[in-house]
Amino acid sequence: MAKTIHRQDNIQEEGTPMVNNNNSKWISSRFRIGSSTPDLPAFGEINPNAPDENPFEFGQRLAKVGTEASLAKASTCDGSLYNGIQRTDESRKSFRPNAIRKMRRRAVFKNGDCNILQSRISKRRLRYLQDIFTTLVDSQWRWTLTIFAIGFVGSWLLFALIWWLIAFTHGDLEDAHLPNSQADSEWTPCVLNIHGFTSCFLFSIETQHTIGYGVRTTTEECPEAVFIMCLQSIAGMIIQAFMVGIVFAKMTRPKLRTQTLQFSKNSVICQRDGQLCLMFRVGDMRKSHIIGASIRAQLIRSKKTKEGEILNNFQTELSVNADGCDGNLFFIWPMTIVHKIDVQSPFYQLSAGDLLQERFEIVVILEGTIESTGQTTQARSSYLASEVLWGHRFEPVVSYNKDRQGYEVNYSKFDNTLSVDTPLCSGSDLAEFYRIRDMPESDKQPVSTDQQSFILKSPPKLMNQMRIVDVEEEPNETKPFPTDYL
């Protein structure tokens, strides 16, 4: 008696037995499971070289797959991920080794800068000038210093011209009224020791910055000179205060504090407590800690709505935690941030094969208060799909140093990962496997003792299935074993 295998897709409700009117047997093949015993073939696989087996015995061995099998695992550190993928679900994308992968353009660079270009803004210059303080703080140092230099020199020249006009209108620049002739002519100028425009420029600098060399001074002869001297002193103080404020704001910007906050180069996916988890690492290299640190993660990828609208940059919040706590961190050493791939996760249907063709970006945001300045800072980074390592976990970096009597953080291993055995299936398939494995033994046994047919109870939902039909074996004829279902 030979076995002819036909593949058929069917939808079966959970809790109802699968019965075939043609005395056929159904075998679930939603995902491959590697056998943990030498004599038990992988779930959904049949050895063509093996002798013919009694269908009932094969069904009994198949019914025990929940307790005697384990998910196929493979290491992904060598990049040959597709060599170990054993998914047989045709409803999802399969990875092609020779396919050209389209990389998603990064929205947030690794250093935290946003890859955003503003264009076609109405009245852009006017809007930036209305907020000149923020504009100068955000601008580069060379532009800020250039503007300050132009402002100081311009104010000196402006008031020097005003002082020259005061002296010219009063007649202090005539030959008989110059400083060398003032004693003979008994002339009282508005400003002493003014010979020309150069003297007015020097007096403008001395007045604005209160240098006070004692050579050039105003007199009571000209009230306008007294008024201009007061006005220039006030203007000089305003310009200096404006410059000091901008320089201080630029030097104490919270953005600079992020240079000592470090994110791991890659994120990893591995199992933790029997559940697939997406993890990345964050650390602080300073002794002054971040107070009230909190971590967030957002997924950016395309989404199609029910109405057919394509949202190219749809953001989804990812629930993250650290060491079993919520997003608030006690940030004293590098910590591994964990996102559990459960039913609520957008990666619940993502397998290792799907990851090779997915286009998404995970933006991670760390916020907190700087302990030394009290300012709020925000550090950002991102991970593309190509920067997610499946089957890896981070190498420990914290150890106790007995010589120095303290915990030592080795930042040379901050980005190092270790290859670990990890199921290549998705989180949903892994949960389904554990559900089948943990079913009561009574539900795993065939409900029919007839050797010609058997029925498996409580099959998984929405599963691709294979149909086995017994046919008469023709004499002296060898039929090839079909392998298109593998």
Describe this structure in words.
This protein has 486 residues and is an alpha+beta fold. Among the domains are: 141-252, Helix Hairpins; 257-428, Sandwich (Immunoglobulin-like). Helix content is 26%, strand content 24%. It is built from twelve helices and 22 strands. The protein has helices at residues 55-63, 65-68, 124-130, 132-138, 141-170, 182-185, 197-208, 223-251, 254-257, 352-355, 427-437, 441-444; strands at 2-9, 25-28, 33-35, 69-71, 73-74, 261-263, 267-272, 275-284, 290-304, 310-318, 321-322, 328-329, 335-340, 361-370, 376-384, 388-390, 392-394, 398-401, 406-409, 417-419, 422-423, 464-471. Strand 18 and strand 19 (406-409) form a beta hairpin. Helix 4 (132-138) packs across helix 8, helix 5 (141-170) packs across helix 7 and helix 5 packs antiparallel against helix 8 (223-251). The longest helix is centred in the N-terminal third of the chain and has 30 residues, at 141-170. The relative contact order is 0.20.
